[in-house]
């Protein structure tokens, strides 16, 4: 986890889910059922309110960001292709992530994400599965994936690029059959603490997060069309008919 996901909610729906208005001049990308690395997607960040002290809840904002974190010190943005996920076990120490983990934490809104099950045998084809919040149709909650963000630009004369990564942990239960890693989720009651742009002990921050476990999510097999990033539409998340 996590190499592809879906995010299709409007800015109004994301505001309802996360109490986050659009940042100044921000226009969110179109609904996307096949978000891949280097594509843009919605991101919820926390900003310190004007004239507020550190303890005040942050102002939540929606931004459009590129998936694949590019550290501020990177010479080339292509490093972001390898920085789509950050392991929670080492995120506080890794040079690429530790600065963002300290003060630039985010929420990545997702309808659901995809994993591929290889089956048995060395030549068994990989079957994609869609994993989403338990529920019914449009009533499913938006997943609040734990993320980090960073600003980068190649030179002083060029605009800033906003990039992000998704935090992962060891997969549990049935999720471990699909993939050995799973995203971390930010519970509603701790979102202000997670998003606040202030440094906190690493253990305290990680204690705010919970793994995306089978009790919170459900999964079903979907079409292999999702394998090609050029395919995009609600048909990608439809369950395959039972054989």
From TrEMBL:
One of its GO terms (biological process) is protein-DNA covalent cross-linking repair. GO terms for molecular function: lyase activity; peptidase activity; single-stranded DNA binding. Keywords: Covalent protein-DNA linkage, DNA damage, DNA-binding, Hydrolase, Lyase, Protease. It is an enzyme of class 3 (hydrolase). Pfam families: SRAP (PF02586). SUPFAM superfamilies: BB1717-like. Belongs to the SOS response-associated peptidase family. This is Abasic site processing protein.
């Amino acid at each position: 986890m996590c190499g592809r996901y879906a995010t299709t909610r409007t800015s109004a729906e994301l505001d309802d889910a996360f109490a986050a208005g659009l940042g100044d001049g921000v226009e969110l990308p179109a609904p996307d059922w096949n978000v891949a690395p280097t594509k843009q997607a919605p991101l919820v960040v926390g900003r310190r309110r004007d004239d507020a002290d550190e303890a005040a809840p942050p102002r939540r904002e929606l931004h459009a960001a590129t998936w694949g974190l590019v550290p501020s010190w990177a010479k080339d943005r292509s490093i972001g292709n390898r920085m789509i996920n950050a392991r929670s076990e080492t995120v506080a120490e890794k040079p690429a992530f530790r600065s963002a983990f300290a003060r630039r934490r985010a929420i990545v809104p997702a309808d659901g994400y995809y994993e591929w099950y290889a089956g048995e045998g060395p030549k068994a084809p990989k079957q994609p599965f869609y994993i989403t919040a338990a529920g019914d149709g449009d009533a499913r909650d938006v997943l609040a994936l734990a993320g980090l963000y960073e600003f980068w630009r190649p030179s002083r004369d060029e605009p800033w690029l906003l990039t992000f990564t998704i935090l992962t942990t060891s997969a549990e239960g049935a999720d471990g059959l699909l993939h050995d890693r799973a995203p971390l989720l930010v519970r509603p009651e701790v979102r202000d603490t997670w998003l606040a742009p202030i440094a906190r002990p690493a253990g305290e921050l990680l204690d705010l997060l919970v793994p995306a476990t089978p009790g919170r999510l459900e999964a079903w097999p979907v079409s292999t069309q999702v394998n090609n990033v050029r395919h995009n539409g609600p048909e990608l998340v439809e369950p395959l008919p039972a054989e």
